[in-house]
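FW: tagging you since you asked about this chain on Friday. Here's the raw sequence from the shared folder, copied in full. Didn't touch anything.
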Amino acid sequence: MNFPRVKEQTALVTGCSSGIGLATAECLRAHGWRVLPTARKPADREKLRAAGFTPITLDIANAESVKTATTEVLTLTGGALGALVNNAGFGQPGALEDLSRAALREQFEVNVIGLQDLTNHFIPFFRKQGWGRIVNVSSVLGRIPLPLMGAYVASKYAVEALSDCLRIELRNAGVAVSIVEPGPITTEFRANAEAAGWRHLTAATASPFAHIYRRNAEQPDRGKTRDHFQLPPEAVAQKILHALASPHPHRRYPVTFVAWAGAALRRFAPDTLVDRLLTHRVAD
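HL: got it, structure written out here
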């Protein structure tokens, strides 16, 4: 389908403290977009301000923060926003049996509910102007059921489903919805966050997976995809740029060989094979 051109090249990009969000903000700005990046922590907003951006305070898990950020964005843009890039999120590691109700709720509050809540605040404005782009940053794990990352996987499966439904619902409104599915991306922030998550789980000494938690906390790079399969966050940013600028945005943008392979595996391989390939993650 041929979507209307984005007449106002202003984009709200969430989760811009580092990594994919920051790379996307810089990429879009380099291509003439006015970027409003969000960050939760004051120190991160100061870094964005020093880099020449006008940062927006946003805690995606807080409904009031979402409302306040929406009002600020619409004030700064005069009510016209060209694109929304939902990148903010985090990954909660751990076997599902070791995660509390609170941990599961936080994972979905940030990655799913907050994402859709923010999007819903802007949809009426996109409908009114008759054009706009929405990009949801998912993951290859939105298709592959990686054990010991079940909460994160479930949240990304949900993002995929929400995006597919929203794309159809907005099809006749001139608003394109795309999903970006990164595989292994080189970012220090994500590596550090994951290592911290594993360290937190080492307290679960009675878990049958306690030895795996300790091993991952001590050697966070153990078993990770080798460097030649990784790409920098700028590779993701380029896909997001295409989704915002092309008259024919793709429904999905896998990024990295692993993401393409994962999509093919899920599409063509039987569940028995997928289970067998991934069981090594929980082997002794």
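FW: The beta strands are 10-13, 34-39, 56-57, 83-86, 132-137, 175-182, 252-255.
HL: agreed, and The domain at 10-187+227-282 is CATH 3.40.50.720 (Rossmann fold).
FW: great, closing this out.
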